[in-house]
Amino acid sequence: MAVRVLVGCKRVIDYAVKIRVKPDRTGVETQNVKHSMNPFDEIAVEEAIRLKEKKVAEEIVAVSCGPEKCQETLRTALAMGVDRAVHVQVDQKEYESLQPLAVAKLLCKVIEKEKINLVILGKQAIDDDANQTGQMTAALLGWPQATFASQITLVDDKLEVVREVDGGLETIRVNMPAVVTADLRLNEPRYATLPNIMKAKKKPMQKLTASDLGVDVSPHYEVLSVEDPPQREAGTKVDSVDDLVAKLKEKGVL
């Protein structure tokens, strides 16, 4: 079975950057802030590349939805070993209110266009932590889904996926085509080498718009305010169990 893989690559504020809320509370500061590929998407890209190295995958297509700077993220995926890229251009204003359902609809159109039969996405993006796009994509396509994957194996034209659940690990087998979302322990992404970074500049990148794909990206809900989390109060040391019980009573816990 020829497996054609699509991976999602979201551009997010780098995980090492301290997030600052805008003074007007409409969102977080993104100007002059370091961005990189969403870490869970990096894991998805790495897994797709490993499937190709095992001769399981035939071709890998990376997709990113957003403004022009998303092309940097796609070039990173190409340098890692992805074959082609598709940039769905969304202007900055629309991108700030781009929601998981709209992204899922855009991905579905690209999946149909590219004749994809395996989708690997990060389980969530570290900016909004929505954990919705993979599930919504599977629902819109009517495909089986295997979320929070920590191991993926192709067995007799089916995917055997070990997934992380609250009680430990669960092994499931799903029919192809399928949507898989990558968890942290699936793999460790490789670093792109300088020769591959240079080669990535020559790899094809198709540019589309939401209107080209016939998708309305208007938001379905509005963010009213973004707030900093409350400062955590300092703890109190106690010398004995009696003191602890007294403090808990004082706080109304007991």
CATH superfamily: HUPs
Q: Could you name the CATH topology?
A: Rossmann fold
Radius of gyration: 21 Å
DSSP summary: helix tally: 7
Can you tell me the CATH architecture? 3-Layer(aba) Sandwich
At the first level of CATH, the class is Alpha Beta
Main β-sheet, spatial strand arrangement:
9-8-7-10-6-1-4-5-11
Account of the 3D structure:
The mean pLDDT is 92. Helix 2 packs across helix 6 and helix 4 crosses helix 5. The chain has one domain: HUPs (Rossmann fold), CATH 3.40.50. 29% of the residues lie in helices and 28% in strands. The N and C termini lie far apart (63 Å). The strands form 2 sheets. A 9-stranded mixed beta sheet has the order 9-8-7-10-6-1-4-5-11, with helices on both faces. Strands 2-3 form a two-stranded antiparallel sheet. It is of the alpha/beta class and 254 residues long. The protein is globular and about 70 Å long.
